[in-house]
Amino acid sequence: MLTLYSYPELFGVADNNGYGLKVYAFLKLAGVPFVHEHVFDASAAPRGQLPYIVDDGETIGDSETIIAHAIAKYRLGIDAALSAEQRRTNHLMTRMLDDLYWVMSYSRWKDDRFYPAFRDGFIAQHPQIDAAGFEKAKAYNAQRYHYQGIGRYSPDQAYARGLADLQVLAEIAPANGFVHGQAPTSADAGIYGFIANIYYFPIPTPLKAFVDAQKNLVAHCERVHAMVSPRPQTSS
Which of 44, 46, 78, 168 lies 20 to 30 A from 88 at CA? Predict the structure, then answer.
């Protein structure tokens, strides 16, 4: 059976990383049986990044590569009806979510207004990680942000990028149904992976405030969450 390795759950969300949660949601929506293993250390992962899967002895990293592998190997029809235009939209949205990832991560690790709440909430749920370990991760992420570029932004500048991305998602997410109709596709898994990691986290970042105010985006997140989560969850 396929095994998904990804970061631990947090605040009732199956993975506290948008990419891992995207893959988790995709496998659930597509009906692919899998085992979910939560790990903290990404050193064994391809390119040292989570998530990754092991499927019949084959190790595959990168969320988009994982999804493409699952569609091909298991002949999944979840995206089969998409038009060329819809596939182009999905590609552009996927790249925009890559941009949103950095702002989400910045809000947790870089912004000292919100880092303590993230740290304390994580340690409360995963006490095997102590404050010293968290500080090491914070320093490591500070380097990542600097070299990627987001770490050279002021908080207002960083959040402006993320809010612009969220505004587009709020215009894409439907009030009812799913992005491309009445059945979910990989696009819905992608949006859910990132929005759930904002909406269900009781940390009042500017990203959270924006999402909470978008009724259609919240409704979309809750619809997907109900389909992929074993237990109900409400925003704090």
Answer: 46
- pLDDT per residue as tens digits for the range 26-72: 999 999 999 999 998 888 889 889 999 999 999 999 999 999 999 99
Query: Among the residues of the chain, which ranges form H helices?
Result: 18-30, 63-73, 84-109, 115-125, 131-148, 155-172, 186-199, 206-212, 215-228
**Percent with pLDDT over 70 in the chain:** 97
Residue 44's CB is within 10 A of a number of other CB atoms, namely: 11
63-to-46, 60, 98, 99, 128 alpha-carbon distances in Å: 11, 9, 11, 15, 27
Is 179 in contact with 191 (CB distance < 8 Å)? Answer: yes
Residue 99 CA to residue 103 CA, distance in Å, equals: 7
- State which amino acid sits at residue 185: T
Query: Tens of pLDDT along 146-172?
Result: 999 999 999 999 999 999 999 999 999
Q: How many residues does the chain have?
A: 236
- Secondary structure of residue 48 in the 3-state scheme: helix
Q: What is d(CA 134, CA 145) in angstroms, rounded to the nearest whole number?
A: 16
Cα separation of 20 and 123, whole Å? Answer: 20
* pLDDT on residue 45: 86
pLDDT 10s digits, 92-112: 999 999 999 999 999 999 999
Coil/strand/helix, residue 81 = coil
Phi, psi dihedrals of residue 201, rounded to the nearest 5°: -90, 125
Record the tokens describing residue 214, joined without a space.
């978008």
